[in-house]
Amino acid sequence: MKAQVLESKASPFVLKDVPMPIVNAGDVLVRLKASAMNHRDLYIRQGTYPRTNYPIIIGSDGSGVVEDVAASVSRSLIGSSVVINPGHNWGTNPNAQQREFKILGLPDNGTLAEYIAVPAKYILPKPEYMSFEEASALMLVGVTAYRALFTRGSVQRGESVLITGIGGGVALTALQFALAAEAKVFVTSGSDAKIEKAMLLGAAGGVNYKSAPWAIDLAKLSNGFDLIVDGAAGAEFGKLLDVASPGGRVVVYGSVQGKIQNAEAARIYWKQLSILGSTMGTEEECAAMLAFAEAHRVKPIIDSVFRFEDADAAMKRMESGEQFGKIVLRNDQ
Questions:
Q1: How far apart are CA 165 and CA 56, in angstroms?
Q2: pLDDT tens for residues 314-333?
Q3: Which residue of 65, 89, 122, 137 pairs with 326 in a disulfide if CB–CB is 3.0 to 4.6 A?
Q4: Would the pTM of this model clear 0.70, i.e. be above it?
Q5: Burial (CB count within 10 angstroms: exposed 0-12, middle 13-18, buried 19+), residue 14
Q6: d(Cα 163, Cα 158) in Å, to the nearest integer?
Q7: CATH number listed for the domain at residues 2-142+281-330
Q8: CATH number at 154-277
C-alpha cells in the first residue's frame, strides 16, 4: 500500500510503498478514504512531541470503509463506512487516562496511508450526513472539545463561554458544540478575519489578543465568563483569571503559548475559580460526542482539502497558522 512516511526529524514526507498492516485478533482493516491533520502531527514532524521516533506514518484522524476483519470480529462490519476513535487504551478510570493510553499516529502508525488496522472497538459508524472528508476531520478535535466543554467544564445553557485561539480545530469545534448547547460564546484570536468568521458561525463577539488591552476589551463584551476553554496557556494566562466570573471554570486542554505564567494564586482562591485540565476523552465520551454532533447536525469546519500526494503542502498550510478549520487529505483517489 502507499503511505506518507516521515523518515527523520523535520524531513519532508516520502510517499512510498509499505507493507499492508497486519490484522491481529480483534482488528478490522479499514481502507481510508480521508484523513485529517492536527497540530500534533506538526509537532511530531518537528521532533518536539514527547517520545517521537522515526520512521513513522503519522495521522490520528481517519474515515473509510471496512474491507476485512479478524476471525473474532463479525463479518457484518465489512463494507461499513466508519470513523476511527484516535484515543486508545484510556483505562477504567473516567477521571484520567492510564499510563498505557496512546493516540493513533505515534507510537503506532497512523492514518496517512491507504489502509489501517485498528481494534474493532475503536471504530464507529460514519454519520450519514457527513462526507468522508468531514467525518475524518471530527474525531480528535471533537472528543477533545466535548470532554473540555461537557465533562470537565460542565457547560450549561445560557452561560457565557470564552474560547481562546479560534481558528484551530479544537477551538472551532468547541464553539460549535457550545452554541449547540445554547451557551453565549465569545472568542479570541490573533486575526481579526478569524474573529469575523467565528461571528458568522454564531459567536457573540471576540477580541484580538495581539492588542495590548485585550483583557479589558473582553471585559467590555461580557460581565465575566462562566467557562473559559483555553488551549494556549503561556505568559498571559493570568488575564483569563481576570475575566473569569466568580466561581467560574477555566479548562486547559493545550499550551501552544508555553508554560502558564503570571497566574496569581489570590485571583484563583478569592474568586473561587476552578482550574481544570483536560485532554482527549474516554471511549464513552467519543461515542457521546458523535451522538451529540449527529443530534445537532454539527459538521466540522474544513479549511482545505489536499490530494494524498500533497501531504507536504497540507503540512505547510498548517505550519503557516493561517488556516481556519481542519486540513484534510483525500487518501483514496
A1: 29
A2: 999 999 989 999 999 999 86
A3: 137
A4: yes
A5: middle
A6: 15
A7: 3.90.180.10
A8: 3.40.50.720
The residues pairing with 229 across neighbouring beta strands, listed in sequence order, are 163, 251
Nine-digit cell string for 313: 503542502
State whether the Cα torsion 129-133-136-142 is positive or negative. negative
d(CA 184, CA 158): 6
254 grid coordinates = 493545550
Q: Where exactly are the structural domains of the chain?
A: 2-142+281-330, 154-277
Amino acid at 47: G
List the grid coordinates of 33.
478514504
Q: Which three cell numbers stand for residue 234?
A: 503561556
pLDDT at 333: 64
Bridge partners of 242, per DSSP, are none
- CA 194, 254, 189 angle in degrees (round to 5)? 15
How many Å apart are CA 271 and CA 241, to the nearest integer? 9
| Cell output for 112 | 496517512
Amino acid residing at 131 = S
In the block, residue with C-alpha cell 487529505: 329
Distance separating alpha carbons of residues 88 and 129, to the nearest angstrom: 26
Comparing C-alpha atoms, which of 174, 30, 10 is closest to residue 116? 30
Higher pLDDT, 116 or 50: 116
d(CA 308, CA 314): 9
